[in-house]
Amino acid sequence: MKRAGTLAALRRAYAEEGLHPREVACEALRRAAGADPAVWIHRLEAAAVLAHVERLDGMAFEGAPLWGVPFAIKDNIDLAGVPTTAGCPDYAYVPERSASVVERLLAAGAVPIGKTNLDQFATGLVGTRSPYGAVPNAIDPSYVAGGSSSGSAVAVAHGIVPFALGTDTAGSGRVPAAFNGLVGFKPSRGWWSTRGVVPACRTLDCVSVFARTVADVHAVAEVAGGFDAEGPFSRRLEFAGFDAENARFGYLAPERLPWFDAAYPDLYGRGVSGLPGTPRAVDPEPFLAAGRLLYEGPWLAERVAAVGDFVEAHPDAVHPITRTVIEGGRTLDAADCFRAQYRLPELRREADAAFADIDVLVAPTAPTHYTLAEVDADPLGTNARLGTFTNCVNLLDLCAVAVPAGTTPDGMPFGVTLLAPAGRDHALLRAAAGFLDEEAPGADEPLPDMVHLAVCGAHMAGQPLNGELTRRGAWRVAATRTAPRYRLLALPDGKRPALIRSESGGASIELEVWSMPSREVGGFLTTVDRPLALGSVELEGGRWVHGFVGDAGAVSGAVDITRFRGWRAYHETA
């Protein structure tokens, strides 16, 4: 059976072509069995997988966005009834309940295939620190796959599953994406609950996802994310955004970056040169300095708090390099930890200042890519260098998505990471889709607690009243047109137009769709005077959204400007 390439294609095959999830699940199991053994720690038996398929009979297809989609789970994330090892056999336990994110995915119809290999206790960026074996890179097995979510990335890269869960504390969900030519999304801390995840640094840990497209990542994110009252590190995020179609991009000044591969600066420069608008160079030092804190302060000691007792009681059960890293946290005194905690807010202020002038920061994901032999020769040094650009992200409270951005002269993938402040996840994914020339995800339907509003005049981007939208946390999700059934009238005050539906003699009128927090809509409406009123507007393609239309009195004294097809065009020629 031919594998469907994306979640949307798989869903269409289920809905229109008679494909059954049993076929897809069995093919995923066949592919999993044929993969390098190091990819998996535990593959589910066929009977267990088909039991998950059978429960789909009780789910409404339309209400289950991941219905019949196979996926893999990093083995530091709980799946009920299946051992969780965190890459250490002696640590294994069998959870009675799945992790919060897994519960959400199962409820949406996803089908688990197995648990994937990782750097033990999620401590590493190489994918080699595991008693289950080093995971070979999906493109060239002489190179590392990247870690710690090595098995999850390779399972997706080999087409075994459309998506897989990883975790990301210092780059574990981004470095393997870059090294295997994938999209790797690390959400804002706390959006995806970490309940049911073996901790590395509990205050920084995130669950992440690997997929082949931004659209697939976004589909998983809409299911996996959400506040979890049982998760102590879950938080209620207030999502905001930016105009992804006109995002202001920044980049780290390449001449000030530490590179460890002669080809990488040129590849990064090419990626930056293709950014829209006029990208702004950003001082990399606050980001690099924050990254250095990760292994100099309390977050190294936090790894001791997570699994240090087990390491001390079972030293021979722990990978030697993993044990060395974790035990290093015992050397820090309280003063060292407080100094790092004092320094981090200073660096966050500097990073915040950088984002005052940009919406998205584009950084290299890694400064080089090592072979397995190079990592074996210098396991600590190579690993440390791979985190040069990723270590800072959770410390600075950013969301991130790693995307492919070229190929090295040796034929290996090169990737960059798009970064934005916490709560900008949805807008960041739309910007990433634009970077990859994908159709932007999530533009058709508003997010939870958001409302889509169509505007066609002074509230559009760059117009005098646009601030009434932006200061209420709104962002533009689409620049489009109405269905060809509207007239546009210039009101007597000369400052605003009115949109009037007309079944005959109408035209397609330029407008923009903005997404606004629901709680802000009432206050916004108080700024809109008659003869304008909130109604429904039909867009080209037939979709309806809320928008401002003229009431019965709008025609009186107004000038019909429909022939201009838009407010901007009218002003440019009037």
Question: What order do the helices and strands come in, and which of them pair?
Answer:
Layout: H1 7-16, H2 21-34, E1 40-43, H3 46-54, E2 70-74, H4 100-107, E3 111-116, H5 150-157, E4 163-168, H6 175-179, E5 183-186, E6 206-211, H7 214-224, E7 249-252, H8 264-273, E8 280-282, H9 285-293, H10 298-313, H11 320-327, H12 334-355, E9 360-364, H13 372-377, H14 379-386, H15 392-395, E10 398-407, E11 413-421, H16 425-435, E12 450-455, H17 467-470, E13 475-481, E14 486-490, E15 497-501, E16 510-517, H18 518-525, E17 532-538, E18 544-550, E19 559-560, H19 567-573
Parallel strand pairs: 2-3, 2-4, 7-8, 7-9, 12-18
Antiparallel strand pairs: 1-3, 4-6, 5-6, 5-10, 9-11, 10-11, 12-16, 13-16, 14-15, 14-19, 17-18
Helix pairs in contact: 2-3, 7-16, 9-12, 10-11
Question: Which terms would index this structure?
Answer:
574 residues; alpha+beta; 11-stranded mixed sheet; 5-stranded mixed sheet; 19 strands; globular
